[in-house]
Write a structure and sequence with these properties.
heterodimer, A: mainly alpha, 2 helices, 0% strand, elongated, B: alpha+beta, Alpha-Beta Plaits, Calcium-transporting ATPase, cytoplasmic transduction domain A, seven-stranded mixed β-sheet, disordered N terminus
Chain lengths: 52, 735
């Protein structure tokens, strides 16, 4: 059962990483316009430099 | 819907923060212009719109949101929405201004984002605890089980306390106001599940419900999130009406002109209204000839000529000449304010509509509490005073009956249906609008601006000789009058070239006159040319030979108006036309559209009275209108629709906004609303069926955390899948 002392913290940590990723996407407004984002990759508008 | 169930307990407590939020938004967003773009659909559209807007001086940023089909432009307050609309229409994208506060993305988005955050956290916690619970269910014993319970408690308790706050807050507000709402049993179940499990964990008990408490929180937050997304901050149409009042007035006194606040004007005073200004008061013209635009108030398409002794009302726009007016009513007594009062009353009546979710909550909440309490008393008696055991059963009953499925039943369907309607060009503004739309059995249309697009077209041009057509074009080109402009446009479309005229002169309020080869010719009003005015809208042409010919005009119907009316009638709905326009114009339009019941010359209060009559006869009326004169009717109808081109006040008063130019969406909308209502009822049936099976099990004391987790997830998923079925069904119907 000693393996549990490792596995449980590891699983929590990995899950926590995913959660942190989710919080980051949420904070940076990545769920505001899903349709638009899927279309915007098709334009060449800001390919040379990032949008100001 | 569910939010009305949960928030309605104390409307005032909710209204205050919302009002504050709106005020803050107004401050914050000054200069941001929000436009609806119903036709955008691709990557090309996005960059075309953004590029175009950025070329306009004063626009500092522009961002299209394709999911919502709108664009936000930051202008720093320098530009009007109309400037941007014009620029976008020039490149082929019809645009409409949206009420930047009512439909504001930022406030609603912030709330939705906060809920999504809580949802994410509780989902994370739920999955981790579920993982540990699986180990316990599959036979972990003694120290291992206790350890797993402790780890679960460490994850679950902080998450529950934080993530379930929206429910706790609502439940507390409701309890303080002495009400029961859906959030009370929810909060009680989450709270007791957490507390009881902690107690069991401390005492090394076998069963802990941490996973159940978390999945409850997760599923209910999901319902709340969907709900939030379909909800818009409410704004009062009555306020919009009062905003139309002119704050300052030019008063005529013995000393001359003075600009004073409207509040200082009383009946009997004299005021001056310059051309282009809005008439600030009700009164009688004492000096001056002019034309006024009454379209907003009465729905009349064309300007009306007025002179001495004519009665004018607040809100009309003076077009051509200065007017001196003796005030008969000002401020609170003016017709505009009276209309605002009527709208306030109508809005109040509408807010009392009790939705299906409200009704469900009213039966559900007391039922659950009684059941849990009876279980506690019953088992206390049966087990001979074992409080811990009896409490465990009561908590199990509360958890099992907790309205997971019920909480999702309405929002899941409403989200699916609203999305469907949005793709068809309808923006649903009110949470209960769909339910009300499903009950509609009578449709009332306004004419001007709703069934017609506000333009007029000359009819029977073929009756004019080629020579007269050329003459009419030449005269019409030299006038700014709407009829003349429409005539010129129609003639140009036919490829006519104008005749050559000399001495062209426009006589304000009368028409245009000129000389053709030395003889007098003219285009204008009947009385001016000595002809007899007919019933309908017409202009008159004095030809070279001195004869006066009538050129009749017809309202220009929207492209699919006839089909829409036919579709509504074929689905068994009586259709009525109520218009403020003159008898002939209304009769003509009604005949063209195939509407048998129509009423002309309706004042705003007449329209509202007519709707009340229909409601008294037991009809649920759908009102479609766009003008100020429709506002009272829109607010008092069972459910109302206005086109995006409508006046602010009318759009605010209506439940659904028609974004595209397609009226046909209205008949589709009813079909979708009806199937949405069916789905909601089915979902309630699913939730009830699930309770009918699981409650006896819980009451008998056989419920285990595993059974609770299974039952809860299955019913929630079933309800969501049933809601998604709406998508498929509606697409079939549309094809």
């Amino acid at each position: 059962m000693n393996v549990l002392t490792w596995l449980i913290p590891v699983s929590l940590l990995l899950g926590g990483l995913g959660l942190a990723g989710f919080v980051w996407t949420l904070r940076s407004s990545q769920y505001d316009d899903p349709d638009g984002d899927s279309q915007r990759i098709l334009t060449n508008d800001w390919d040379d430099k990032p949008r100001p | 819907m569910a939010d009305t169930a949960s928030f309605s307990a104390c409307p005032a407590c909710d209204a205050a923060p919302i009002a504050k939020q709106i005020a803050e938004n107004r401050m914050h967003q000054q200069g941001d212009i929000l436009l609806s773009l119903p036709t955008i659909h691709c990557a090309g559209c996005i960059s075309a719109v953004e590029r175009k807007l950025l070329t306009i001086p004063g626009v500092t940023s522009a961002r299209v949101n394709l999911s919502l089909k709108r664009v936000v432009a930051e202008t720093g307050g320098a530009l009007e929405a109309a400037d941007l609309v014009e620029a976008l229409e020039a490149i082929g994208y019809p645009a409409h201004e949206l009420d930047s506060t009512a439909l504001s993305s930022s406030a609603a988005d912030k709330a939705a984002r906060a809920l999504l955050f809580r949802l994410g956290i509780s989902g994370f916690a739920m999955m981790n605890v579920m993982l540990l619970s699986v180990a316990v269910w599959s036979g972990a014993e003694a120290a291992t089980r206790d350890l797993f319970h402790w780890i679960s408690a460490m994850i679950a308790l902080p998450v529950i306390i934080w993530a379930a706050q929206p429910f706790f807050k609502n439940a507390w507000t409701a309890l303080r106001a002495g009400h029961l709402n859906m959030d009370v049993p929810i909060s009680l179940a989450i709270f007791l599940a957490g507390g009881m499990s902690l107690f069991e964990t401390i005492n090394g008990g076998e069963e802990a419900y941490f996973d159940a408490a978390l999945s409850l929180t997760f599923f209910l937050l999901a319902g709340r999130y969907l709900d939030q997304r379909t909800r818009r901050a409410a704004r009062s149409a009555a306020e919009e009406l009062t905003a139309l009042e002119v704050p300052r007035v030019v008063q005529l006194t013995e000393d001359g002109e003075a600009t004073v606040p409207l509040a200082q004007i009383a009946a009997g005073d004299m005021v001056l209204v310059r051309p282009g200004a809005r008439v600030p008061v009700d009164g009688i013209v004492t000096k001056g000839d002019s034309e006024v635009d009454r379209a907003l108030l009465t729905g009349e398409t064309l300007p009306v000529a007025i002179g001495v002794e004519t009665i004018v009302s607040a809100g009309e726009i003076n077009l051509t000449g200065p007017l001196e007016i003796r005030v008969t009513a000002a401020g609170r007594d003016s017709s505009l304010s009276r209309m605002a009062d009527l709208v306030t009353i109508a809005e109040g009546a509408k807010n009392r509509y009790s939705s299906l979710a409200d009704k469900a909550a009213q039966i559900y909440a007391p039922g659950v509490h009684t059941l849990a309490f009876l279980a506690f008393i019953g088992w206390l008696w049966a087990s001979g005073g074992d409080i811990r055991f009896a409490l465990n059963i009561a908590v199990a009953v509360l958890i099992i009956t907790c309205p997971c499925a019920l909480g999702l039943a309405v929002p899941a369907v409403v989200t699916a249906a609203s999305g469907n309607l949005f793709r068809k060009g309808l923006l649903v503004k009110n949470a209960t609008a769909l339910e009300r739309l499903a009950e509609v059995d009578f449709v009332v249309f306004d004419k001007t601006g709703t069934l017609t697009d506000g333009d007029v077209v000359p009819g029977a041009l073929d009756d004019l000789s080629m020579q007269n057509q050329r003459l009419a074009l030449a005269l019409a080109q030299n006038s700014g009058h709407p009829l003349a402009r429409a005539l010129a446009q129609a003639l140009q479309l036919r490829g006519i070239s104008p005749a050559t005229l000399t001495d062209i002169r426009e006589v304000p309020g009368k028409g245009v006159q000129a000389k053709l080869n030395g003889t007098d010719v003219a285009l204008g009003r009947a009385e001016w040319l000595g002809a007899e005015a007919g019933q309908g809208t017409a202009t008159f042409l004095q030809c070279e030979n001195g004869k006066v010919l009538e050129i009749p005009f017809e309202d220009h119907l929207r492209a699919d108006a006839i089909d829409t009316i036919a579709a509504l009638k074929s689905s068994g709905l009586p259709v009525m036309l109520l218009s403020g326009d003159n008898d002939a114009a209304v009769a003509q339009a009604a005949e063209a559209l195939g509407i048998d019941q129509f009423h002309a010359r309706m004042r705003p209060e007449d329209k509202a009275a007519k709707l009340k009559d229909l409601a008294d006869q037991g009809h649920h009326v759908l009102m479609v209108g766009d003008g100020l004169n429709d506002t009272v009717a829109l607010a008092s109808a069972h459910v109302s629709v206005s086109p995006a081109s409508a006046l602010d006040a009318a759009r605010v008063a209506s439940d659904i906004v028609l974004l595209g130019n397609r009226l046909g969406a209205i008949s589709d909308a009813r079909a979708i609303a009806r199937s949405a209502r069916r789905r909601i009822l089915e979902n309630f049936a699913i939730a009830a069926g699930y309770n009918a099976i699981s409650v006896p099990i819980a009451l008998m004391g056989f419920a285990s955390p595993l059974a609770a987790a299974l039952a809860m997830s299955t019913s929630s998923i079933l309800v969501s899948l049933n809601a998604l079925r709406l998508r498929g069904a509606a697409q079939e119907e549309a094809q």
